[in-house]
Each structure stands twice: as structure tokens, then as C-alpha cells.
Specification:
Elements: H1 2-14, E1 17-25, E2 29-36, E3 41-48, E4 55-61, E5 66-70, E6 75-81, E7 86-94, E8 103-112
Length: 121
């Protein structure tokens, strides 16, 4: 029983898949951070609800290196392999004016390690 618990904890530490959704209002920015070990594959897939405002996506590491950037992001995928034990940040920033009453629903799926690999290809 203790071995099973240790295995589950190990797998959760090194191989993760997270799906989430959130709402982003006009002229707002939301960022999510994730720690990864060295030489770990990270993949992400995102989709934004339709809205008459632009939303930009940026993925950066703690040194400020841009790992992925998409202006007027609507739908897409990104992937990178970590060079070192590090933390990366996924940020969505919307344009528009405060009080416009325009919200965008953002759907984000991030996978790391074994979960990020596509064995169907």
C-alpha cells in the first residue's frame, strides 16, 4: 500500500495534465505558473470564446525568455522542452476598455512529461 501511494505521488510530481477554464474581462491580464524539471516536454492547447476584442497569449520562463507568443490568440497549441528546473508562466492579456462588459472564456489544457507525448503519431 505504501508503495502505491509513493508511486502516485511520484507520478503527480513529474507528469501532470491540467485542464481549466476561466473568464477574462476587457483590459485585464491573467497568468498561470507551473514548475517543471529539466528536459521535460510541456505542451499546451488553448481556445478562446469569440469576442470583439483581441487577447494576446505569452509563455515565458523566469529569465524572461519568450517560449511562445501569439497576438490575437483564438485557438492553438504550443510546445517546448525545459532547459533546466524552472517555472514557466502562461499569460493572457485582453485589449478593450474597462466597463465594456466584454468577457472572454478561456480554455487551457497543459500537459507535462509523459502526458505531453502523443504516442498516436
Amino acid at each position: 500500500m505504501a508503495n502505491r501511494i509513493a508511486l502516485i505521488i511520484f507520478l503527480n510530481l513529474f507528469f501532470k495534465a491540467e485542464s481549466l477554464s476561466f473568464t477574462l474581462s476587457a483590459r485585464n491580464k491573467k497568468c498561470l505558473r507551473e514548475e517543471v524539471h529539466k528536459d521535460v516536454l510541456v505542451t499546451g492547447e488553448y481556445r478562446l470564446s469569440e469576442a470583439p476584442i483581441k487577447t494576446h497569449l505569452t509563455v515565458i520562463d523566469t529569465n524572461g525568455h519568450v517560449l511562445y507568443k501569439k497576438e490575437d490568440a483564438q485557438k492553438g497549441k504550443f510546445a517546448f522542452t525545459s532547459d533546466d528546473y524552472d517555472m514557466f508562466e502562461v499569460c493572457f492579456q485582453s485589449e478593450g476598455t474597462h466597463g465594456q462588459g466584454i468577457d472572454r472564456e478561456i480554455f487551457l489544457d497543459i500537459k507535462t512529461g509523459v502526458e505531453a507525448k502523443n504516442y498516436d503519431d
